[in-house]
Amino acid sequence: MKIRQRLALRFMIVSALVTGAILIFIYLFTRGFVHADFVDRLTQQSSLEVLHYATPQVRDVMPAGSFNLVNPSVSIYTRDGKKLYGRGEYSIPPTWLTFLQQNDVFNAERGEYTTAGRKHEVNDVLYFVFVSAKDLPGERELTFLLKATITGWIISLILSYLSGVYFSGKALQPVTRVVAEVNQVTEDNLSHRLEPDRKDSAVDEIDELILTFNALLGRIERAFINQRRFVQNASHELKTPLTAIMAEVELALTRERPPEEYQRTLHVVLQETERLATITQGLLTLARLEEGPMKTEMNSLDVSELVDRTLAAFSLHHPERTVIREGKLGQSPLQGNFHLLQTALLNILDNAYKYSSDKISVILSSTDRDVTIVIQDYGIGIPPDDLQRIRVPLFRASNAWSIPGAGLGLSLVDRIVSVHRGSFHITSEEGKGTRCTMRLPLAS
């Protein structure tokens, strides 16, 4: 069942309950009023009957059928229970007379008859009068009212369902339009965006849904573009060393060569193989980090020790490069993965080593909530047009193609910092250097 029919059905059920309750209340209220009016007419008839019996001259002034009763039965008794007058076939039980003798008012219903018993004093004589009758006009009115009520209730159900279908269809027209537009979005048409209905100044729920869906489409489109670019760059980066290896091996196999040339070929193959291993390892690390921090082992570690061991490892491989450390951290406990954070710092230091020939500055600072590690180099920098894309895997700046690299370093750093719920910022000026800032939250 579609939403339109469900809404119409629910609207019909609510309408049925509300109108049914109102109609039942009206019927019961009307029935009570009819019954009370009939008892009142029986009471008035009892007054008239006792006057007719005690003072016959009243008959000429007020006829017996003055209160719209159909063949009423009348019984008149004295104080001691003697029956003075009776008319009709309806008999009064002795217990009713006893009750009226002890009380001022008597009302009873038995079968189709309603009986009203009253005390009347005429010419200093006390009479006990009972008037019984069928309320035929009232029953007809109530029967007609009941049929009209049921018929009206059924008609109201039909009308409420039809109106529910109509108005729910009107209300869901924007949804139908959105569905039709969404069907136009394909993998080759991710740039398509839904148009909000801005006929009114206020933005309704459908417009909010459209804006949210457009934002989702934007994220999906960017993800597709990044994935496509990643595949293209990965193919290029993997193809280059493979092509070099194949060319060197094929060249070496064309004819007999001296050992020196074979050594040169093996040296080139080793370099390209190391490059392939670096790219593959970087891609595997990125894939593992995409699983999120829940898949990454986190331990309590000291940031000062992390920085000291990382700088020692870097100096071991590049003893000729000067690294200036500034600032102190003291005891800065951090919840993280030592190997991943060391990999991030080494990637930044390696970039600073490759793209500059001057000193490298490492500036440390901390607050009660986080620790900041800044690595500054004074090399070629990053062009402004490339700065926004420098974190994309396998992307390299336009001025760095002549320098060996895979374009994975900063992508790994960005993802590692994100896994540790930190922030990573890059500022650079072409020809003057690059400044990388890592800010990591401390363990609470």
UniProtKB/TrEMBL annotation:
Reaction(s) this enzyme catalyzes, per UniProt: ATP + protein L-histidine = ADP + protein N-phospho-L-histidine
Compartment annotation: Membrane
SMART domains per record: HAMP, HATPase_c, HisKA
Gene Ontology cellular component list: plasma membrane
CDD domains per record: HAMP (cd06225), HATPase (cd00075), HisKA (cd00082)
Main location: membrane
Domain spans labelled Histidine kinase: 233-444
Transmembrane segments: 7-29
Enzyme class: transferase
Pfam families with a match to the protein in the record: HAMP, HATPase_c, HisKA
GO molecular-function term, one example from the UniProt record: phosphorelay sensor kinase activity
Parts forming coiled coils: none
InterPro entries: HAMP_dom, HATPase_C_sf, HATPase_dom, His_kinase_dom, HisK_dim/P_dom, HisK_dim/P_sf, Sig_transdc_His_kin-like_C, TCS_sensor_his_kinase
Top-level taxonomic group: Bacteria
Family matches, as PANTHER family: HISTIDINE KINASE (PTHR45436:SF16), SENSOR HISTIDINE KINASE YKOH (PTHR45436)
Protein name: histidine kinase
Source organism of this protein record: Dawidia cretensis
Lineage: Bacteria, Pseudomonadati, Bacteroidota, Cytophagia, Cytophagales
